[in-house]
């Protein structure tokens, strides 16, 4: 397969895939990737490596994730793909009426109102219990060491940290936000490139999670600290909300795209948007990658998929249609009829009822993990629980205040969720895990990477290096500065509003590990839009 040919590189990228045999970890921070690889070399499997990498990322990339976030995983073990939903629910005491009475017309980004139960620590522990080999406390050691001893700040990390510090100085009012500055900007400024940053509070918290297998977070000392902080500022989240949390094993969903099965976590995630778009595109003739017609079809398909996703995706208990309805073949063909040679205005159809980090790992036994976690919008709610280093997520701001919507705010609900891990199989063989971080860019990145792999036979590094586009709203599409200019001009002629962006940080940050089914050799790609790294042996 050409995906495994390191010489096949039509973009003349300066980087080829990393190739290894025994194990591989790919993520956005070199120190975290190395943490996972060390665990694997010490006898752990791909699941152990994923947990260690995820824990380390909360320390070495706090600009996009933290201990107080959510997580999702797709896990390939013994020729079976498992899905884990590690997203938490809204507090039992919150309601639309209470939020409106507080003076809000929409859910705010910061403070206690958008805070939902963090599912991430529970997801780590659950993965370890079911599939891990090493003791859980061993998996936390690299993260504890980074937090306690400190590490030097890398370039992309410094850029995002500085942006957050400047934004938070302007946005935050109230003493509840003081702990964020004490933890992440103790001198009023973000740490600079090469500067050592550390947090003893975070190290102590990670050590407590290691010793209790995260039970303290939901029914112990840490839960008590979260509860006290919330009560001090009339927050909604309580220790009772934390005690009720359990991660949920779910059946992954997929579509067959030109002989390959592309897999996602089912709603409440937006992974179904990527699948819906691919389900439309598979019925279309695709000329070649660098074709105006190809880009036009991709954009139009993702617009239709997003229109459906924004209307229907919610906590599955409240959805008015099922994933099967949205991915039905007949419905895909109906949506296909709406695509012409001109840019259209996206509208939802009616299927018949019947700031994130990504990592992937693979080991010599054939186990593979696609894992994603996030505090959302960078540092999340801007709240850090005193004495813990735990930044609480603001995932609840993806609810709405329309009581008729399936994704309306309510007690004990999971919100529409942007973070999505991806996986590809062919027949009974795993090709491997992939993901692209970045809010609503994620399903668009999944579509572009999947098509680059399947339609255009690009190797994993080339698939990630290729210039990207991002639909934002109506007929507006952002493109990267290295996007082909002639194609951009031709898309304008088709009615698209094309905006070229000099900063590539909003176009996602991805990783890929493909496994050659014939040889077992691993091929990894990582992102040039971040401090990405692949650790392998």
Keywords:
537 residues, alpha+beta, 7-stranded antiparallel sheet, 18 helices, 21 strands, globular, GGT_ssub_C, Ntn_hydrolases_N, GGT-like_enzyme
Write a short abstract of this structure.
The chain has helices at residues 30-41, 46-60, 96-101, 120-131, 136-149, 155-171, 178-184, 200-212, 215-219, 221-232, 239-243, 271-281, 292-312, 323-326, 329-336, 442-454, 460-465, 485-493; strands spanning 18-20, 23-27, 70-77, 80-86, 151-152, 196-197, 248-250, 253-257, 260-264, 357-363, 368-374, 384-385, 390-391, 422-426, 429-437, 469-473, 476-480, 497-501, 509-515, 522-526, 533-536. The protein has 537 residues and is α+β, with helices and mostly antiparallel strands.
Give the arrangement of secondary structure elements.
Elements: E1 18-20, E2 23-27, H1 30-41, H2 46-60, E3 70-77, E4 80-86, H3 96-101, H4 120-131, H5 136-149, E5 151-152, H6 155-171, H7 178-184, E6 196-197, H8 200-212, H9 215-219, H10 221-232, H11 239-243, E7 248-250, E8 253-257, E9 260-264, H12 271-281, H13 292-312, H14 323-326, H15 329-336, E10 357-363, E11 368-374, E12 384-385, E13 390-391, E14 422-426, E15 429-437, H16 442-454, H17 460-465, E16 469-473, E17 476-480, H18 485-493, E18 497-501, E19 509-515, E20 522-526, E21 533-536
Question: How does this structure look, described?
Answer:
- Helix content is 35%, strand content 19%.
- The chain contains 18 helices and 21 strands.
- The strands form 5 sheets. A 7-stranded antiparallel β-sheet has the order 1-20-19-15-14-9-8. A 7-stranded antiparallel β-sheet has the order 7-4-3-11-10-2-21, with helices on one face. Strands 16-17-18 form a 3-stranded mixed β-sheet.
- Helix 1 (30-41) packs antiparallel against helix 5 (136-149) and helix 12 (271-281) crosses helix 15 (329-336).
- The two termini are 23 Å apart.
- It comes from Jeotgalicoccus nanhaiensis.
């Amino acid at each position: 397969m050409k995906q495994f040919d390191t010489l096949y590189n039509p973009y003349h990228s300066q980087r080829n895939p990393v190739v290894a045999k025994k194990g591989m970890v790919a993520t956005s921070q070199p120190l975290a990737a190395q943490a996972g690889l060390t665990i694997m070399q010490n006898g752990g499997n791909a699941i152990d490596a994923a947990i260690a990498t995820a824990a380390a990322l909360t320390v070495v990339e706090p600009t996009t994730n933290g201990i107080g976030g959510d997580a999702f995983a797709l896990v390939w073990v013994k020729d079976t793909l498992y899905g884990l939903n590690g997203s938490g629910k809204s507090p039992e005491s919150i309601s639309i009426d209470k939020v409106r009475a507080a003076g809000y017309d929409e859910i705010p980004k910061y403070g206690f109102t958008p805070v939902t139960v963090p599912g991430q620590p529970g997801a780590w522990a659950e993965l370890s219990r079911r599939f891990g080999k090493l003791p859980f406390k061993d998996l936390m050691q690299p993260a504890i060491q980074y937090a306690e001893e400190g590490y030097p700040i890398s370039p992309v990390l410094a850029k995002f940290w500085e942006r957050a510090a400047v934004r938070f100085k302007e946005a935050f009012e109230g003493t509840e936000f003081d702990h964020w500055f004490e933890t992440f900007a103790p001198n009023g400024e973000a740490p600079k490139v090469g500067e050592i940053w550390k947090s003893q509070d975070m190290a102590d918290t990670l050590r407590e999670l290691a010793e209790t297998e995260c039970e303290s977070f939901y029914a112990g000392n840490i839960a008590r600290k979260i509860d006290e902080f919330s009560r001090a500022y009339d927050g909604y989240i309580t220790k009772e909300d934390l005690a009720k949390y359990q991660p949920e094993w779910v059946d992954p969903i997929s579509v067959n795209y030109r002989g390959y099965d592309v897999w996602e976590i089912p709603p409440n995630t937006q992974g179904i948007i990527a699948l819906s778009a691919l389900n439309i595109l598979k019925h279309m003739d695709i000329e070649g990658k660098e074709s105006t017609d190809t880009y036009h079809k991709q954009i139009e398909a993702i617009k239709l998929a997003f229109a459906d996703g924004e209307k229907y995706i919610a906590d599955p208990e409240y959805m008015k249609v099922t994933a099967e309805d949205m991915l039905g073949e007949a419905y895909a063909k109906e949506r296909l009829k709406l695509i012409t040679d001109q840019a259209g205005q996206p509208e939802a159809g009616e299927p018949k009822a019947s700031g994130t980090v990504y990592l992937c790992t693979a080991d010599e036994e054939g186990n593979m993990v696609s894992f994603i976690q996030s505090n959302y919008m960078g540092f999340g709610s801007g709240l850090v629980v005193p004495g813990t280093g735990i930044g609480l997520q603001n995932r609840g701001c993806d609810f709405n205040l329309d009581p008729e919507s399936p994704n309306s705010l309510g007690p004990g609900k999971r919100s529409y969720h942007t973070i999505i891990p991806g996986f590809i199989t062919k027949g009974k063989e795993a090709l491997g895990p992939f993901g692209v971080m970045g809010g609503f860019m994620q399903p668009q990145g999944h579509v572009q990477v999947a098509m680059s792999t399947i339609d255009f036979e690009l190797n994993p590094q080339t698939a990630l290096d290729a210039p990207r586009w991002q639909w934002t709203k109506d007929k507006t599409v952002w493109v990267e500065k290295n996007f082909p200019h002639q194609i951009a001009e031709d898309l304008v002629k088709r009615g698209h509003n094309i905006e070229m962006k000099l900063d590539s940080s909003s176009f996602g940050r991805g990783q890929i590990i493909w496994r050659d089914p014939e040889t077992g050799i691993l091929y990894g790609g990582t992102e040039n839009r971040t401090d990405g790294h692949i650790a392998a042996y």
